[in-house]
Amino acid sequence: MRDKAATRPDTKHFEESHQPSSALKAASLNLERNYHVFLSFRGTDIRNNFLGHLYAALDQKGIYTYVDSEELRKDERITPALIKAIEDSRIAIIIFSEDYASSSWCLEEVEKIMECKEQRGLTVFPVFYKVEPKEVRTPRGSYREAMVKHENKFGRDSEKVKRWKKALYDAGSLSGWDLNDK
């Protein structure tokens, strides 16, 4: 049964040429979990363009994908339903965009995703959308600016900020897809 919080982004501009990887196709064969793919993204950056195309391509291939709605993001902490969606997924695709690290919610997600990778064997595939992997890992550029703001809010030596930095470093170090078409 599909979660009512999972919504479909705008897919009107979908092109037939988008094809998911063989790993995503293989994941659709395993029905033990509720979702095949969990998409982590910063909505203001990509919800109605890249995300719509990606979701449509996955959906067309019968790959059950979790995409949260903007209404869920009223608080800074991720909800238990979202944590369960991450835990129940086979694959997590993290779409790192310019504004991703500015969101405490996104940083909580990436931390949980990387925890599930280590503890549950979740497959994690990063997409670097208009950012370089090194910007995510080090952090640099908009990621550095965002982390400075989080350090000011939570404290430079905050355990939370340290966990977020580690999660960004670990996820940014994975092989993924670089869509840096600035």
From TrEMBL:
Keywords: NAD
InterPro entries: TIR_dom, Toll_tir_struct_dom_sf
Keyword flag NAD: yes
Start-end of Basic and acidic residues biased regions: 1-18
Region annotation (Disordered) ranges: 1-20
TIR domain span: 33-182
SMART domains assigned: TIR
Name of the protein described by the UniProt record: TIR domain-containing protein
Organism encoding this protein: Eucalyptus globulus
